[in-house]
Structures are given as structure tokens and as C-alpha cells.
Amino acid sequence: MEKFRLEQAQNLLKDAAKSKTNEERLKNPKEGFINVDQFENIINKLFEAEEFIYTSRPHHKLDQTNAEIFVDKIIEARNGMDKILSNFGVIEKQTVEIDLNKYYNDLLILTTKTSLKKTIAKFGVDPQRIIVAGVPLDPDDMKILNPKIPETALDPINKKIKHVKNDINRKMEQFGLKDIIVIVENDKPGQILGKRAKELYNARLVIKDNLKDISIEEFITIVS
């Protein structure tokens, strides 16, 4: 499984580097500005990946969990490099030709972020297979998020919760889906939604520090 995971991630990187004409177009750089935040993020991701060289001594073998983390760092750094090279005109922004259906075929995607739905829908994910939960899945969780919430405010929230649950059940049946994956940021609403979805639906939980700039490669790695 570990070997397959590594090979899969390597293949994704190769696929993502292909343009519609299957060739890399490198141009002379044009003048521009360095995105310092982006550059620092690349360096930080490479430093984080470098740690695995030392922690995996002497054979540098990674188990599945660490392999996923390591590859994720490399992919994030690579995406940042592509953005900088694109900003200086060295490479063109390319459309990645990947059939996403085979990666999320049996999954319903649950999140707290509307921005994630918009982003992955642009990748080609069916928006009908994505649910943005504006409320938690249990009224008690709302009290955790807002301990001072009045009881009178819980009635409309309960209705919204029932709507989300009905939506989940309906889509699971409508599309013949087998599993639910919760993709959230590392914040309180995301953690609570993920924990409750695991209890109710045995959902798979993926927590990321930032979903704003998620790439198609990262998405495939998450749902694979």
C-alpha cells in the first residue's frame, strides 16, 4: 500500500506537468516582482520535507502516513514554484488534463468552506456531490461553538441541521455513493463537523491548514 501510494503521487506530479500538447514550454524570464510570501512558503515546505531525511535514517523509508505528509509538502512547494515561474513568464499557466471521476467516484464531499466547493468545481468535480454545511450536524455542537447562544435561536438551527442531514442522505442515495469525506480547515467549526461526521457516517476526515489555494494535485492526493 505504501509503495502504491508513493508511485501514485509520483504519477500525479508527472501528469500535472503535462500541457495539452504534452510538452513543457520554457521561455526567457520577463521582468516582474517576487512574491515574497509565496517564496517563503516554498522554502518552509522544503525545510519541512527535509526533516524526513533525518527522521527516516538510515534507510529513508517512510510508512504510509509519513509518505502522505512528505509528498504533500513536496507538491505544495512545487505548486508554489510553478506560480512564481508563471509570474515571470517562464512557463505558461496550463490546464491539467486529469479525469477526476476515478478518484472521487464513490465519495460525497462535505466541507464548511464555500470557497473549496467553488475551487474543486472548477477542477471538474460535480457540484451536486459537494455539500457546504453552514451548521454543525448536532445541536449540542452549536453550543460548543457558541456557548452563549439562546435556546430560542436553536429552533431555526435545528431545521438547518435536518436539512443538511436530509441533503446528505438524499445525495448518497441519488448518486449511489458509498463514503463521505470531510475536507475542512484546521479551525473549530471544521474540527467539530469532522468529528461528528465520523461518528454519524464513519466519514473520512481531512484537515488542512489552508484550503484557499488548494491545487488539483493536492485534491487528488486527498481523495485518493
Verbal overview:
The structure is a single chain. With 224 residues, the protein is an alpha/beta fold. It has 2 domains: 2-87, no CATH class; 101-223, no CATH class. The chain is built from 9 helices and 4 strands. The chain has helices at residues 2-16, 36-55, 64-87, 101-104, 114-123, 139-145, 154-174, 188-201, 216-223, and strands at residues 107-111, 130-132, 179-185, 204-208. A 4-stranded parallel β-sheet has the order 2-1-3-4, with helices on both faces. β3 (179-185), α8 and β4 form a beta-alpha-beta unit. α1 (2-16) packs parallel to α3 and α1 packs antiparallel against α9. Residues 16-23 have low confidence and may be disordered. This is DUF2100 domain-containing protein.
